[in-house]
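Good morning N.,

You mentioned wanting to compare the apo and holo forms, so I went ahead and generated the holo version with tryptophan. This is what I fed in:
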Amino acid sequence: MGQGRENWSGTLGFVLAAMGSAVGLGNVWRFSYITGEYGGAAFILVYLGCVVAVGIPIMIAELLIGRSTQRNAVGAFATLRPRSPWIMTGWLGVLTGFVLLSYYSVVGGWVLHYISLSIADGFAGQSTEATKQLFATLSASPALQVFWHAVFMAVTIWFVARGVSRGIEWGNKIMMPALFFMLCFLLVYALTTDGAAEGIAFLMTPHWDKISAKAVLEALGQAFFSLSIGMGTLVTYGSYLNRHTQLPRAVLFVAVSDTAIAILAGFVIFPLVFTFQLEPNAGPALIFETLPAAFGQLPFGQWIALLFFLLLTFAALSSAMPLLEVVVAYFIDEKGWSRTRASWVFGGVIFAVGIPSALDRGFFGFMDMLTTNYLLPVGGLLVALFAGWSMTHTERQAEVPARDLSSGLYLAWVFLLRFVAPAAVAVILLRSMGLF
Ligand code: TRP
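and this is what came out, ligand included:
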């Protein structure tokens, strides 16, 4: 086992790939609109708590399960605990891949549409009302949305069918820093606009009365979504790792940069929201209504818009590929399919599953709610229980030795896995189901 399998070129290659999967539409599009809906600063603090207490421990756990078995998400559980129900955790991950990617690709399609608008210089000199209308027009056109959804999915399939490609690893190294610098540039602009003070206050002054059980559930779901956990992606990524990589360090790096990019995006979006008198709780439309208004005002706005949406497309693709890869790897490893066939067949199925999300915003919301509030947290809960209770100290310490995690931190990690993460997920799930 493990022979002839692919491996990351090294820790750096792995960390970049994990960042590529983590940094995506979740950081810019989803984080900002959810933060807007749940009132800003207080929500962000809850989110940070979720990342530290639940997200990071589960990230380490997923990697450890993958690296110790050198198998995909389903095979890993089957190897560690043969003929046990734990294998369902892997299946759940594959199912989640279908659901998540189906509507993720619809949003990817919106971004592509905005590239075409930038090329046509559709934002220049437009009033806020007019730029808002651009999104309304897109929403009202099933043909346009399905078309761009198809294009986004086709590009994703094409890359995945070619194999865990060199192209994307190389692209990550260039495009990720470029996206970061682009956000910094936009930040400087956003902070000089009239709404800056209001935007910053929104992000920095907590209003705890806005935090309900539902808000906490959303924060937890967003943490799972943004860190790409709860569906076996990191199990798969860990399976391509060798012993030299220190898991806790790598995880810390990925989690911190993912969170930093989301918060940075918030500091770009919210000053603009208040400058252009938009509603922070506009929902999934938020960045598509806000940013074009700003691009329309900026000198060279057309080029800045084009560059920004290109980089966002890249971030979205570098997340969409691993999502499809979770599904494809399962059918290759466990069912003996060829990579090309698995990519096109299941990419096609996911495209079809996504069509209702493109046509109906209610269905879109349902798929998103199902994924972030239920599928990912339940997947994460199972991983935490498995790594916390079913695995032994010896099994865990073989992957996370004292060299990588001091004994105090090791105990804290196991404590978080055993008690804090499961309790947090369970309580929030039960509350949201109205059970108490
Ligand atoms: N983290 C990605 C984003 O923020 C979305 C995502 C969730 C994902 N789970 C994943 C990407 C699994 C790849 C693999 O956009």
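Residues 3 and 111 are 40 Å apart (CA to CA).

Happy to go through it together on a call whenever suits you.

Best,
F.
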